[in-house]
Amino acid sequence: MATFEYDALTSAGRLMKGSIEAASREEAGGLLKQMQLTVNSVEKAKPAKPKTAVGRNEFMLFNQQLAAITKAGIPLEKGLRELAGDVGSKSMRRLIGDIAGELEAGVSIEQAFEKKQKAFPPLYGRILKAGVETGRLSEMLTSLNRHLEMASQTRRILFEAMSYPVVVLTLGSIIVTAIFLVIIPQFASIFTEMFEGARLPTLTRLFFSMARNVVPFWITVGLLVAAALFVLGAVSSFPAGRRFKESLFLNVPVFGRVYHSSMLSRMAEAMAMMVAAGCDMPACLRLAAGASGSEKLLTEAETLAGQIEQGANILEAGQLCRTLPRLFLYSIQLGAQRNELQDNLYSLGQMYAEQARYGQARLQAALLPLMLIVVGGVLAMAIMAMFLPLISVVSVLSAAG
Q: Is 386 exposed, middle or buried (0-12, 13-18, 19+ CB in 10 A)?
């Protein structure tokens, strides 16, 4: 199959450009005619350059603009066409234009975005689908942007708290590495002769050993960091891998609680929108979990929805849930019994959002001192390793005097 670029007119006389896959140019023309398009030209597409993901700030701006378009009641495909004309980035303009073309050709919004899944965050198509099906797309996109800003703020806190210690640690590593490569080898033979027949202090022997292996050590560290980044990127490309990555994030102290609370807040607010749109509980769970952007929540919500459809209540169905807490499920059941489900869900969303903000404050307060303690400890050990033999020599000379 090859990709062909086409230029055609719709039945309403509107110019339409896009791409289509077919075995030959003639087959592509036939497929376009079946779509009731008047074909002007069909040409084989040039090999596309590898697509990269949309930048975080660029995506948040696009998401905000899309929310404004849908809130204004503009049809999505027309709004995307207009939006593509206002975007400064050529790659983003082309990307939005391709999606608009898919929608105009009758492709569902979820499928249109899944075809561009490498450019957008995982499950973004499902979030849009949930918004379209419930008529709450604008509110869902606004909620998503709010949580993206919260996640961005958490990353900024991490960066600000770690940047100064990391700079100090980097400079310290460069200085210590230079000492290991230039100074310590010169003193190693002197210390060995001075302590002939006696053992050097353990810490000093450890640092002498590190000096002999400092280059392989940093090569190994670099390879391990590169491998970790590659693995994290690779596991994000399929559902089971994303669940594994989420499990890692959830187990990180403090940060895991912030991440978990943010996910639950997004799901609670999405469920409140679904309830307002008249969805039943299984549909609410499935669509809201998709809107949360979490594979773990999506898996648990699917199990919950299936058991509820078989007649179980949500607390019974959620006994094996690990990501959805019992409080979350109990609040849903209580709200449904009292006919206050929407209010309960909004309250849950606000509660978990507050928990996330509190966790962010804790991160900011704890990370900088912790990193400084680690950096100070490493540098103190290096200094001690260098001075311990000298202290021993001075002690011996003092005793002899």
A: middle
From 31, 20, 214, 52, select the one nearest 119 (Cα to Cα): 52
CA distances from 1 to 27, 33, 37 (A): 11, 19, 21
Kindly give, in sequence order, each residue whose CB lies less than 8 Å from that of residue 78, ignoring residues fewer than 6 positions away: none
Going by C-alpha positions, the residue among 248, 222, 236, 8 that lies closest to residue 105 is 8
176: part of which helix (H) or strand (E)? helix 137-178
Whether the predicted model's global pTM rises above the 0.85 cut: no
Q: In what order do the strands lie in the sheet with 15-22?
A: 15-22, 2-9, 38-44
| pLDDT one digit per residue (tens) for the chain, 401 residues | 567 787 877 776 777 777 777 777 888 788 778 777 788 888 877 654 434 456 667 777 777 787 787 777 777 778 888 777 777 677 777 888 888 888 888 877 777 777 776 677 655 776 677 777 777 777 777 776 776 676 666 667 656 656 766 676 677 678 777 777 777 777 666 766 666 656 667 777 777 777 777 788 788 888 998 998 888 888 777 778 888 888 888 888 878 888 888 888 888 887 887 787 677 888 888 888 877 778 888 889 999 999 999 988 888 888 888 889 988 999 998 988 888 888 888 888 888 888 888 887 777 777 767 767 776 777 677 677 767 766 766 665 566 55
CA-based angle 54:152:284, to the nearest 5?
80
DSSP state of 151: H
Using an 8 Å Cβ cutoff, are 389 and 208 in contact? no
Q: Tokens 């993901």 appear where?
A: 53
CB atoms within 10 A of CB 268: 25
Containing 4, the helix (H) or strand (E) segment is strand 2-9
Give the pair of three-digit tokens for residue 201: 């202090």
9 DSSP β-pair partners: 15, 38
DSSP 74: -
User: Which DSSP symbol is given to 62?
Assistant: H
Topology (CATH level 3) of domain 56-143 = Receptor-associated Protein (1.20.81)
Determine whether 228 is exposed, middle or buried from the number of CB atoms within 10 Å of its CB (0-12, 13-18, 19+): exposed
